[in-house]
Amino acid sequence: MKPLFFILLLFPCLLFAQNEQVKTIFDSLQEPGAGKGNVVVRQSDAIRQLVGARKHGANVEETDGDTFLVLEGFRAQVFSGNNQRLSKDEAFDKEKQIKEQFPELTTYVTYTAPFWRLRVGDYRTHEEAYHVLRQLSEAFPAFAKEMYIVKEKIRMPLH
User: Fold this and answer.
1) Nearest one of 72, 67, 71 to 59, comparing CA atoms
2) Model confidence over 121-130: pLDDT tens digits?
3) Residue 114: is the preceding peptide bond cis (ω within 30°)?
4) CATH numbers and ranges of domains, the chain
5) CA-based Rg of the chain, rounded to a whole angstrom?
6) pTM over 0.90
7) 3-class secondary structure for the chain?
8) What are the backbone dihedrals phi and psi of residue 63, each rounded to the nearest 5 degrees, phi first?
9) What CA–CA distance (Å, rounded) separates 144 from 72?
């Protein structure tokens, strides 16, 4: 008898939760307000359901409270070396030099045996990565002969 009582008690809450709709950008645009014009958005229900939904297979990563979407993109490779004694220090030294002049750039020093690599940025397009590569080449002409664009998984911040 007690389990039936709890089910009946929770049933209205379950119904309410199922009827609650998530507010989308379409709803926000169509809300009336003082000083706002009237906006009418016409789209199919299929599109309305896709807005705000994550793509199937999308990778989301959380680091230090920040959320990132991990997807295919491009980075500028600044350094790659396989000298066991020197390459690690050289990668971190070049990273420090780049961070001093371009603090807004994200840098990645990685080790995949036997190579230490320094890559810069998270860019959706080759053109974006190339633009930064040109800036780095001008700022650090001694590094320029080693620099090129690589296709790699990148991390885009989700706000």
Assistant:
1) 71
2) 999 999 999 9
3) yes
4) 2-53 (no CATH), 66-158 (3.30.70)
5) 25
6) no
7) CHHHHHHHHHHHHHHHHHHCCCCCHHHHHHCCCCCCCCCCCCCCHHHHHHCCCCCCCCEEEEECCEEEEEEEEEEEEEEEECCCCCHHHHHHHHHHHHHHHCCCCCEEEEEECCEEEEEEEEECCHHHHHHHHHHHHHHCCCCHHHCEEEEEEEEEEEC
8) -140, 120
9) 24
**Model confidence pLDDT, tens digit, residues 106-143:** 999 999 999 999 999 999 999 999 999 999 999 999 99
Cα 154 from Cα 89, distance rounded (Å) = 24
The amino acid at 98: I
What does the alpha-carbon distance between residue 39 and residue 138 come to, in Å, rounded to a whole number?
A: 48
Task: List Cα–Cα distances, 128 to 57, 60, 103, in angstroms.
Answer: 25, 22, 17
CA nearest to 130, candidates 72, 71, 76:
76
